[in-house]
Amino acid sequence: MALVQAVASNSLGPDPAEHLMHVTGEWVMRFLVLVLLATPLARNGWPRLARYRRMLGLYVWFYATLHLLVFAQVYIGWSGEQLIEELAERPYVLVGFSAWLILIPLGITSAHTIRKKMGRHWRQLHKLIYAVVILGWLHLLWLSRSDVGDAVIYGLVLGMLLLYRSRFWNIAQAYVATPILFLLRERRPVACERCK
Fold first, then answer.
1. How many Cα neighbours within 13 Å face the side chain of 125?
2. Does 57 fall in a domain?
3. Per-residue confidence at 171, pLDDT binned at 50, 70, 90?
4. What percentage of residues in the chain have a pLDDT greater than 90?
5. What residues make up the domain containing 125?
6. Residue 192 falls within a domain, yes or no?
7. Using an 8 Å Cβ cutoff, are 114 and 125 in contact?
């Protein structure tokens, strides 16, 4: 809503297109973090965010589409030839566009009825969000050029969240963390003979 108001009041600064590209891209990355954060929080006693995971995923798609529409309007003027040229010459455009293409089936299949019809295949399809995360981060990194601060922070946060989801994390948790927690719970203070 604030973005719409800023556009309507012409208060986006000296380069409105650049500002719109930056803001919409930033919100894509923020919502990706929230989507990945939902499961770890739910597994650790904070299930509230997980209830909104589908909506958050749709926000990713929405802001990525706005990002692409601004790019199409301002930078390539809705030219298919110009788009092909940008995809060939600029890797950050290619990975960003690829991430958006992957988001299309994820967004379409987010409807409850489609999810029920797809059954277990729905979960397999929606694992493509991990590819979107990696491509989105590469898009940000390659756009950053000299100022890579945001890209590094997002890379660390998203990397930790992806690691949490990986098989490596599950193995480490099963063989290291779980036995340690079990031992800590089972340890009881021993009564001191002299203290009686």
1. 16
2. yes
3. low
4. 64
5. 2-186
6. no
7. no
**Of residues 134, 159, 139, 148, the one with CA closest to residue 25:** 139
The DSSP 8-state label assigned to residue 166 in this structure reads S
> What global pTM score does this model have?
0.80
CA–CA separation, 132 and 38 (whole Å): 16
Residue 129 placed within a domain:
yes
Contact 92, 139 (CB under 8 A): yes
Query: Does the pLDDT of residue 113 top 60, yes or no?
Result: yes
| Number of domains the chain contains | 1
> What whole-number distance in Å separates Cα of residue 133 and Cα of residue 103?
10
Answer whether residue 102 is part of any domain. Answer: yes
Distances (CA, A) of 157 to 15, 57, 185: 30, 17, 30
Task: Assess whether pLDDT exceeds 60 at residue 26.
Answer: yes
- Report whether 73 contacts 82 (CB < 8 A): no
For tokens 């199409």, what's the residue? 72
